[in-house]
Specification:
Length: 306
């Protein structure tokens, strides 16, 4: 195959979708947010609440791994993107972490679940004592590839929540919606960074496909387990249960991502011509961030402190 043919088949970024990344120091007030913040639908609320259990540890792990990768980045523009990504992910972790005390106050202690998530990211996927050289580089590349696969789905979810108008129609709590959409908009903003870093550090299609399978399977397992944990431990429910049927039905109603859309995301990521910039809209993300109550307040606070 000629170099020209290889270039055509390779990942093709949409240059106009790139934007300089910055962290927004947002804050949210949770005292008026009910446990079932989607009125009359604890399953939808708790399924989305799983984000608060997974993301703090997961995004701290992203930051930890990327700080180790920084010395290996030879492209200054990519380095800037990664530094912006690190700042945004650190803020995401903090924002979701601050929801957990509110859940405890309402009688739902997530500690048994979050302890297991912490173990997975800190121990199972954490740093290992390996011989310097090839083994150490292999483990770093594996984790960079896993993050790229996970970020495919965080960008997917970000794009979904920005367009989830049914949540508004059902009267979902505006503060929780703002948290989700602020986070989702930033995921769309930086949706190409993890993939670009993987391509820069390694780019092996075999590793990309293999780590996608690991990431997808783990996310599905953890998400359904988290939803069941919430439903079974919700003090207001007598016989709380969660099932894939519940998820599928909510997806058809627009309250959760549809099963069909999730399945279509699989061949998209596994396509040899895939690039994250081909999906989602930076313009839409920026427009939301310009109107988000939390993001607008963060900008005002930053200007006031300057």
């Amino acid at each position: 195959m000629s170099n020209k043919q290889a270039a055509v088949r390779g990942p093709q970024p949409v240059e106009t979708e790139r934007i300089a990344l910055k962290a927004r120091k947002v804050s949210f007030s949770w005292e008026d947010t009910p446990l079932h913040w989607v009125p009359g639908d604890p399953f939808t609320a708790h399924t989305i609440n799983v984000l608060h259990l997974l993301l703090p540890a997961g995004e701290r792990w992203f930051v930890h791994v990327y700080k180790q990768v920084l010395p290996y980045i030879r492209d200054e523009r990519l380095r800037e993107d990664v530094i912006g990504f690190i700042g945004q992910e650190a803020m995401h972790s903090q924002a979701h972490d601050e929801v957990l005390p509110h859940l405890r106050e309402q009688g739902l202690d997530p500690t048994p679940y979050t302890a297991q998530v912490d173990w997975m990211f800190e121990k199972l996927l954490g740093d290992r004592t390996l011989p310097p050289g090839r083994a150490t580089r292999w483990w770093l590349k594996e984790r960079v590839a896993l993050i790229a696969a996970i970020e495919h789905y965080t960008a997917f979810l970000g794009d979904w929540v920005l367009n989830a108008e049914e949540l508004d129609r059902r009267g979902a709590d505006p503060v929780m919606l703002d948290l989700l959409r602020w986070h989702g908009a930033e995921e769309v903003e930086h949706r190409s960074v993890a993939f670009d870093l993987f391509q820069h550090i390694d780019g092996s299609y075999r590793r990309r496909a293999r780590t996608w399978a690991t990431a997808f399977t783990t996310l599905v397992f953890l998400w359904q387990r988290g939803a069941r944990f919430f439903m079974e431990n919700d003090p207001t429910l007598i016989d709380g249960r969660a099932s894939f049927r519940d998820f599928h039905l909510r997806g058809r109603r627009g309250l959760l991502p549809s099963t069909g859309a999730m399945l279509k995301s699989v061949p998209a990521y596994l396509s040899r011509t895939y690039h994250p910039s081909q999906e989602g809209s930076t313009e839409q993300a920026v427009a939301y961030l310009a109107s988000s109550p939390a993001a607008v307040a963060a900008v005002a606070a930053e200007k006031g402190a300057a």
